[in-house]
Amino acid sequence: MQIMVSGRQIEVTEPLRQYASEKIGRIQKHFDHMTTTSVVLYVEKNAHKADATIHAKGATLAASAEGADMYAAIDALADRLDRQVLRHKEKVSDHDRNGGAHMKRKTT
């Protein structure tokens, strides 16, 4: 999985980039079909915010989070993305169990 970390009107330091990559990279252990992830860090009026978009096989997941500092925002973002990825994985596995069909018809 490729993780791109960028900043909007702020300079992203190497420790911040590594922290974001590590946190978002942990999500991959739940779902292997992720291809690219884009993380954008920015500050808006004293609020530190982080946005991320994950491109996965069959879906695009997006989340946004806010925190007291940039590390807290990244933690909240990782938690939100983790829940979304688990939900997506559950949907995919449910469809696979049903043979890909939402409802099966009975033929008698």
Automatic annotation (TrEMBL):
One GO CC annotation: cytosolic small ribosomal subunit
GO molecular function annotation: ribosomal small subunit binding
Keywords annotated in UniProt: Translation regulation
CDD domains (UniProt xref): RaiA
Coiled-coil ranges per UniProt: none
InterPro entries xrefs: HPF/YfiA_ribosome-assoc, RHF-like, RHF/RaiA
Compositionally biased intervals (Basic and acidic residues): 88-99
Domain of life: Bacteria
Acetylation is among the record's keywords: no
Magnesium among keywords: no
Gene Ontology biological process terms from the UniProt entry: negative regulation of translational elongation
Region annotated Disordered, chain positions: 88-108
Cited Pfam families: Ribosomal_S30AE
NCBIfam families according to UniProt: yfiA
Assigned protein family: Belongs to the HPF/YfiA ribosome-associated protein family. Short HPF subfamily.
Stored PANTHER family: 30S RIBOSOMAL PROTEIN
UniProt subunit comment: Associates exclusively with 100S ribosomes, which are dimers of 70S ribosomes.
Protein name, as recorded: Ribosome hibernation promoting factor
Organism, as annotated: Candidatus Muproteobacteria bacterium RBG_16_65_34
